[in-house]
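Re: [ENG-882] Designed sequences occasionally contain unexpected residues at chain ends

Forwarding the minimal case from QA. Structure tokens:
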């Protein structure tokens, strides 16, 4: 429809004809330009998976929606299901209030789109502009009010985009957090810090990777045909009102392959500075190849020993003969402490010291090693200890404390760069 010279008097006419017939329980709604780019990335990966007859069945177990106030952006988007909000189709003019107002005016259109079989909704957006910043919290609120398990995945602007835009984005994070069960925040600035030698096109795909991993990981866990399964209600129990989450999948092979798979899953450079030792709930599903010794489960014990004493755990497993000698782990961590980045480093320190649960926008995700007699022959542990911790972090990062272990022995914890060693 040509909308250049006319208002859209009935926004419902722009809803895809198949809206409401979604057969999947997981839906991803990209709001605004950044959000639409993210769901388009997921859509491209779906197509590639189908064309290559990939064994990655999770690619087919969720639906995608591109939502925007800009008609041209949606017209050029390859995602089949489009959700047009507003009346003119010309965007929000980079104005947050206008984006919010348009979303509120189009609330019934959004609700109609949510009226399907979906039980979990990911709302993704790039913050700092108009449509995404203003409309994403509204879409998230409506999803939650509709009884959907709602997870927000948002990105913060680069530092070169200016302090004003970053402050707008940081304020929007709080709006999102109030309207979702859990929020994952990705800091685009980490691209420059961690991917300096990566080609531009490849690097610009990285902010979408946490969303891609999160959606596929949930789908794989829920739809897995395992020996012991994890169902959607388990996912809901872990995520509901948790405020923070890490959802990802990793692979490991060779010695300590389960530990390696977990580390690969949670140590994304885009997700950093989370205190996962404060994790309240853990869902884990792993796939093993033809052979695996029961003793390898000890690696799971080593991981969970570095988490909360009152940790809630749900796990499952299944066999996958296509893995060769690898193991595959999908993991969900929720309820941990995390802080937002700030132009004022002192404010981050103050927030962290007060254990303020803000959002999941970390600069590093620490992994944990339990140094016990049986692990002292582990080359990984020995290599980590060759350089004293005090030589590997700044004064601001040096945080040593004493805690009780189950057997009342004292252990010291200290942050060392992107790793926390417990010994």
């Amino acid at each position: 429809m040509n909308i250049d010279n006319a208002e859209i008097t009935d926004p419902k006419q722009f809803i895809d004809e198949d809206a409401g017939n979604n057969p999947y329980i997981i839906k991803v709604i990209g709001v605004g330009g950044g959000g639409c780019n993210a769901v388009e990335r997921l859509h491209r990966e779906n197509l590639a998976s189908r064309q290559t007859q990939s064994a990655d069945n999770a690619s087919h177990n969720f639906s995608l929606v591109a939502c925007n106030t800009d008609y041209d952006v949606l017209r050029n988007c390859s995602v089949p299901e489009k959700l047009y909000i507003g009346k003119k189709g010309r965007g929000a003019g980079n104005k947050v209030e206008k984006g919010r107002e348009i979303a509120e005016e189009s609330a019934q259109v959004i609700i109609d789109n949510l009226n399907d079989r979906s039980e979990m909704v990911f709302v993704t957006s790039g913050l700092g502009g108009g449509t995404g910043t203003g409309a994403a919290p509204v879409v998230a609120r409506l999803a939650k009010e509709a009884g959907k398990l709602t997870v927000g995945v948002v990105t913060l602007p680069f530092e070169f985009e200016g302090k004003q835009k970053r402050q707008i984005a940081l304020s929007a994070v709080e709006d999102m957090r109030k309207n979702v069960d859990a929020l994952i925040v990705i800091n685009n600035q980490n691209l420059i810090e961690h991917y300096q030698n990566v080609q531009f096109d490849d690097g610009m795909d990285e902010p979408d990777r946490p969303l891609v991993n999160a959606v596929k990981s949930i789908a794989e866990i829920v739809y897995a045909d395992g020996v012991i399964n994890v169902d959607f209600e388990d996912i809901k129990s872990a995520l509901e009102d948790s405020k923070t989450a890490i959802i990802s999948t990793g692979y490991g092979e060779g010695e300590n392959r389960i530990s390696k798979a977990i580390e690969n899953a949670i140590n994304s450079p885009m997700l950093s500075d989370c205190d996962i030792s404060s994790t309240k709930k853990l869902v884990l599903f792993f796939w093993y190849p033809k052979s695996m010794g029961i003793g390898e489960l000890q690696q799971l014990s080593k991981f969970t020993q570095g988490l909360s004493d009152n940790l809630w755990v749900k796990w499952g497993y299944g066999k996958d003969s296509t893995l060769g000698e690898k193991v595959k782990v999908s993991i969900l961590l929720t309820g941990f402490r995390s802080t937002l980045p700030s132009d004022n480093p002192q404010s981050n320190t103050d927030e962290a010291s007060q254990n303020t649960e803000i959002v999941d926008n970390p600069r590093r995700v620490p992994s944990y090693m339990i140094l016990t007699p049986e692990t002292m022959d582990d080359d990984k542990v020995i290599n980590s200890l060759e350089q004293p911790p005090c030589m590997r972090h700044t004064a601001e990062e040096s945080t040593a404390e004493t805690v009780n272990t189950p057997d009342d022995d004292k252990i010291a914890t200290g942050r060392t760069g992107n790793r926390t060693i417990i010994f």
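QA comment: On inspection the terminal residues look reasonable. Residues 1-6, 11-15, 343-370, 387-423 have pLDDT under 50 and may be disordered. Proposing we downgrade this to a documentation issue.
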